[in-house]
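Thread: Newbie trying to understand structure tokens

Hi all, I'm a second-year student working on a class project, and my supervisor (Dr. K.) asked me to get a predicted structure for one chain before our next meeting. I've only ever worked with sequences, so writing a 3D structure as a token string is new to me. If someone could post the tokens and maybe explain what I'm looking at, I'd be very grateful. Here's the chain:
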Amino acid sequence: MDEPVQEAVTAMEEHTGVVKGYRRAHPRGLVFHATFTPAPEARALTTAEHFQGSPVHALVRLSNAAGSPHAPDRASDREGKVLGLAVRFDLASGGHATWAAANIPAFVARTPKEFIQLTRAQQPNGKPNPLRMLGYLLTHLHVLTGIKGIVGLKPTPSFAHCQFNGVHAYHLVDAQGQRRAFRYRWVPAAGATTLSKEEARQRPQQYLLDEVQERVSRERVTWNLVFQLANPGDATHDATRPWPEDRQKVPAGQLVLDRLYEEQRESEPLVFDPTGVVPGLELSDDPLLQFRSKVYRESHQRRSHETKPEPKPTDMRQ
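---
Reply by user tm_fold:
Sure, no problem. This is what the structure looks like when written as tokens:
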């Protein structure tokens, strides 16, 4: 295993409130059965199997991104938290494709080294160390978009009202072999909305997973997949730099949650690797893609040798 990967996972254990037996990031979550139906526009851009017309079964994991499974779903009555939406597409050929997105516009590190530095700028409880964080920001001004995106998050009433962004660039490959750089986003069909300070104050510390579980039992919870296509010269190696919003956007499909996955503990070995692409999709030159993949695998390796404690009473449905 690469030394930076070991450093990164150890830093997460020491600085983000990790609990043994849980994922090192996004430890509290729920997995749902879902159906993904590709849009006709996507088929013209890629030969990837799950974009060729027929609906495919998928597993979707919605999660709180904090290091601790006991972390609240909002930082305060005014500030929300980073949340995740990860998907495993089950392909007719027997394989899988996996993606992982978050409700932030950009990432907060450009390289593995920066990620380790940022992680070490936190206290053992996962809160920023003011002096270390200031030092990181002053020497890495390019991460300000990502930091502002996190600080600017507002409490949400539901996962169903959050937009999730892939942040990394990929390449679409069509039947003629033409490659197009793109980023993707999951846009909530219910609309992106937030809670007022007064509304947030009425919610418990952890409410989002219970809310979406109840919501799925009574209505369709849907996100529309959108590809944002790059213009020539748009950087594909830097997850801290979103592309301008005037870039072409193409509808690519729809994701609908069907029902809760039967045995949540059986879903724990699942790794929603952002590099899990299939022919018709290619990774970009973003160095964090392969790094994240290795960090996820190391996290899985470590937690698989640990005893996962029983959830606290407030987490019984997670």
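A couple of things are worth pointing out once you decode it. The first strand starts at residue 28 and ends at 38. The beta strands are 28-38, 56-64, 83-90, 96-102, 164-165, 170-173, 179-188, 221-229, 249-260, 281-283. Feel free to ask follow-ups in this thread.
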